Amino acid sequence: MRKLELLAPAKNLECGIAAIDCGADAVYIGATRFGARQAVGNSIEDIQELCRYAHKFGCKVYVTVNTIIYDNELDDTQQLLDELGKVGVDAILVQDMGLLKCQLPKGVALHASTQTDNRTAEKAAWLAEHGFERVVLARELTLDEISGIHKALPDTELEVFVHGALCVSYSGTCYASEYCFGRSANRGACAQFCRMKFDLLDAEGNTIEEDAHLLSLKDMCRIDSLERLADAGVTSFKIEGRLKDINYVRNVTAAYSRKLNEIIEKRKADFCRSSLGICDTEFTPNLKKTFNRGFTEYFLDGRRSNLASFYTPKAMGEFVGKVKEIRGNSFNVAGTATFANGDGLCFINGNNELEGFRINRAEGNRLFPLKMPRGLKRGMALYRNNDQAFERELNSDKSKRKLLVDLRLEATDKRLSLTASVEGMQCEANVSKDISLDLAKNPQSENIKRQLAKLGNTEFMAGEISVLPEEFKWFVPNSILSELRRECIEKLEKTLQDKNEDRLTEKAEKKYPNAKFSAYQLPYMYNIANKLAEKFYEEEGLKNIRPAFELMKPKSPLVMQCRYCLRYEIGQCKKRNDPARIIKDPLRIRLADGRTFRLEFDCVHCQMNIYAEE
User: Fold this and answer.
1) What sign does the dihedral 49-50-56-62 (CA atoms) show?
2) What share of the chain in percent tops pLDDT 90?
């Protein structure tokens, strides 16, 4: 039986706890520095508190240290690693190979971040040989490619993104933000170059597409393919979104948790969850109702078009109907959706731009905007990107994760003993009390079970409750039962905490001695930004070592490698479409400020390379 893990993002401690309460088996979170989302950092104290909460349920906490590190930051990085080791984190996500030359914390697993550009079994084997227990695969891989990597490395955990924003470039090989704005994606400061507007130009400089978000991909959603991914060997199903708010985390985590439970329910012999606990949310999750740019499974089943959203990089939300009639300061919507005051709606106007507005008052399907949008016309499709009723439902959710605990009360004439054990964990607690008991006039077992089941505001929910001997003949005051229950649960909580603080992860054995690092066409793509990384690659036999892009500042560089192909997206694929209609190379994209980027189409590897032009 294989354990499946739902891995959710945590912007902060509050989001991390919410993710666990909504069904996550693990969460990933940034520390004070060196995470791939520079805007979100968390104190060591908050990470420690998150670990304590997570470990009660057998959940895990992974911390991102997945940027490239400069020489003057190595001491701070070592200090951070030491601190993370002391507070009980389960794994560290790494990009910079220089960290392998640091003093890594004992018992903390190493995960190779997607920033290490993990496209092949050869790369994954090389990482496993260097002590990485898990590899986060590139988002671009197909199901067959994922399965092939698992078959080649059956003992290496594979983590795959299943939901959230997509980077258009292979992670770790995107230098566009650094080149254009001095904000490095490999340093956690991406300026979202790919969400900007471009013109697409042919070889003569004629405009093919104007003022469009040519590189802005839709969001990934693979909720209907989780079972296929599990069969392909995926261990961990990752939700993107360390910048997302708590309601996004609640909704998406709950949706994927329910889906995994459905799969496990029908295939109990094959799969189980990697953590424990009952997660019953008070809301019904709906992926269409929280932030999304439209959904795609990306390349899971091979190359396809309609991956991008040229009109807008913003969230459009769910389709709610079409404009039926406009009258003065209001309009009617044809459709079955219900609306609430304060809902946010949007539409694509006549200039192919996203236009949004807020509903001031809703009277059935007649809507009164706060300000009537100028571009709204009869027949236009409407989308809701802010659902007030659903947001209120999420905000009011008080769901708490509970551990199922079995209770056993045993009695003799002069002694009571209560034992509590957590289902699925080798963990139990026992308390006893010397007491003289009187014989009962009436049967007591059912009352005893009712009293013991009152676990109130704890992390526990009563499972099986047994009262022994079966012919229970004594009267036990409710006050005594409450005292025993309270003491036993407190002892169980302490036992669980002690058990989790003693968790150690064994280092992975080296199994691929002949594995070699992937060779890149350009030396800066190894992302070597410090002396430890340089030493590491020297020992690996890399020749002609050069510094990272951020330090090298190359001229007219390759700034992106993409499996996404703009030719394919617009029906101009050289292999697939009519040769007579193909626009000849080179194609270029142009930013609003006039800077241009040459597109190179590598049809052998089915890859689009983007080069900056000076």
Assistant:
1) negative
2) 84
Q: Which amino acid belongs to residue 471?
A: E
Rounded to whole angstroms, what are the CA distances from 302 to 230, 373, 565? 18, 40, 13
What is the DSSP pairing of strand 271-273 with strand 198-201? unpaired
**DSSP for 297-348?**
-TTTTS--S--B-SS-SS---EEEEEEEEEETTEEEEESS----TT-EEEEE
Which residues fall within 8 angstroms of residue 362, CB to CB, at 6 or more apart? 339, 340, 341, 343, 368
Which of 63, 124, 129 has the alpha carbon at shortest distance from 100? 129
Q: Could you report the per-residue pLDDT of 414-465, keeping only the tens digit for each?
A: 889 999 999 777 788 999 999 888 888 888 899 999 999 999 888 899 999 9
Mean pLDDT, the chain, whole residue set: 93
Of the candidates 354, 357, 345, 336, the one whose C-alpha atom is nearest the C-alpha of residue 318 is 345
Cβ-based neighbours of 496, under 8 Å, separated by 6 or more: 55, 56, 422, 425, 427
DSSP label at residue 240: P
Residues in the chain: 614
What is this structure's pTM?
0.94
Residue 431's DSSP bridge partners are: 418
3-class DSSP state for residue 76?
A: helix
Could you please state the CATH topology (level 3) that the domain comprising 316-395 is classified under: Thrombin, subunit H (2.40.10)
Q: Which of 549, 559, 535, 539 is nearest to 610 (CA)?
A: 559
What one-letter code names the amino acid at 316? M
Tokens 């990697």 belong to 274
Q: Maximum Cα–Cα distance for the chain, whole Å?
A: 100
- What mean pLDDT comes out for the span 593-612? 96
What percent of the chain is modeled with pLDDT above 70? Answer: 97
Q: Which two tokens stand for residue 8?
A: 């959710």
- Cα–Cα distance for residue pair 574/235, rounded to 1 Å: 37
Domain extents in the chain: 2-166+222-289, 316-395, 403-501, 523-548
Task: Identify the weakest region by mean pLDDT among 113-117, 181-185, 517-521.
Answer: 517-521
Average pLDDT over residues 575-601: 94
Averaged pLDDT, 545-574: 96
Cα separation, 151 vs 52, in Å, equals: 35
CATH superfamily of 2-166+222-289: Aldolase class I (3.20.20.70)
